[in-house]
Amino acid sequence: MLDREKASGIVAEYKQEHIMKYFDELNEEEKEELLKQIEITDFSVLSNLDGNKENIARGTFEPLGAVTIDDISANSSEYIAIGTEAIKAGKAAAVLLAGGQGTRLGFDKPKGMFKIGVEQELYIFQCLINNLMDVVKLTGTWIPLYIMTSEKNNKDTIDFFEEKNYFGYAPEYIRFFIQDMAPSVDFDGKILMESRSKISVSPNGNGGWFSSLVRAGLLNDIRSKGVEWINVFAVDNVLQRICDPSFIGAVIKSGLQSGSKVVSKAAPEEKVGVLCLEDGKPSIVEYYEMTDEMRTLVNEKGELAYKYGVILNYLFNVAKLEEICDQKLPVHIVDKKIPFMDEEGNYIIPTSPNGHKFETLVLDMVHMQDSCLAYEVIREKEFAPVKNATGVDSVDSARELLKANGIQI
Predict the structure, then answer these.
(1) Burial 111-123 (b: 16+ CB within 10 A, else e)
(2) In angstroms, how far is CA 355 from the centroid of its own chain?
(3) Nearest 5 degrees, angle CA 283-CA 286-CA 287?
(4) Residues 203 and 182: beta-carbon distance below 8 Å
(5) Whether 306 contacts 295, CB under 8 Å
(6) Tens of pLDDT along 51-90?
(7) Contact 19, 196 (CB under 8 A)
């Protein structure tokens, strides 16, 4: 834990001394809250405020092919054998990105705690652990699982796992860590305060998972276990396969630096990021960045050229991740309506954007790889996102897909 002197030094370095303005007037609990916040806040993002808030320029895009479902079926035995050998040797670990709340589901708790079951007691976290347990049973090997929470949901998440006895997973193989937070600033670059003892912060984006893991001291744990590959996945896809031996085996056999599970787009206009090449390196182009020409372009087979949508299930090499961590990911700056405390100590809820938030994106992490294997999976078997309460990619659609895959809900 930081002491007052170190905290003062940090805020002074970034010319944000006002953060400590009321420190002497705070009670002990408030002082501890502020010092803890300063400790886990990534102030380095402020260096991105250079007065030019343009979108990060994109390069030249080209389509990227994939190891298709048919290719995988034809080579299944070999891929599974290679992946199983790596898992048994302790070379694979998993990172679950679980920092979000279930707000869009009408649920004011960590999203993973949402009960997806109807007649059964089945939670989103439970679905994911069950999927990972399939690999544990297949390989006879417990896989290290690192769960990234947020400052807001960390305690609820840990308490839930303890209450549910980790859904049968060996607790000594599960480690929790809190995602780094990025400060919110006004348009002049001054960090906003929510109260005298609380900085206005937000999670630093899904690209911040590795730097957060490093800051939490878990890279030493990963090194000591001999882990070479990390499978990163998001909390909201209840059907995804985690540390899938076939996926790991295919990436290892390919000799490429990373891998991404993808699904064929359902339609040209589907709102999904597409794995492609950008200036010759793997990249993800978001649906809103694609031109009409890119969306509708077909290849010699008559298929969409940009057809492989990402599902946020990636395999990264640890050595390359350490290299990227030293290089620093690009930081995206977005304008937001940010509640804050004004000079007179009043809490203000703005009606229009009044400042910037900072985030890093995992898609930039993909672009920093030299190569990436696109690994196509069957959408109906591995893609059941729970993003909305109803409609597309919703609780309802995920429940239907779970039932279609023989899972009792």
Answers:
(1) bbbbebbeeeebb
(2) 24
(3) 140
(4) yes
(5) yes
(6) 444 456 789 999 999 999 999 999 999 999 999 999 999 9
(7) no
By C-alpha distance, which of 72, 30, 27 is closest to 253?
72
Nearest to 235 by CA among 133, 111, 359: 111
Tell me the CA end-to-end span of the chain in Å, nearest whole number. Answer: 44
- Name residues whose C-beta falls within 8 Å of residue 271's C-beta, 6 or more positions apart in sequence: 287, 288
- Give me the mean pLDDT over the 191-216 stretch: 92
CA atoms within 13 A on the CB side of 392: 4
Give me the sign of the Cα torsion angle 384, 134, 69, 260.
Answer: positive
Asked if residues 68 and 76 have their Cβ atoms less than 8 Å apart, the reply is no
The region, left, alpha or beta by phi > 0 then psi within -120 to 50, assigned to residue 226 is left
Considering only CA atoms, which of 304, 310, 303, 247 is closest in space to residue 282?
310
pTM recorded for the entire structure: 0.91
For 378, residues 6+ apart whose C-beta sits below 8 A from its C-beta are 69, 263
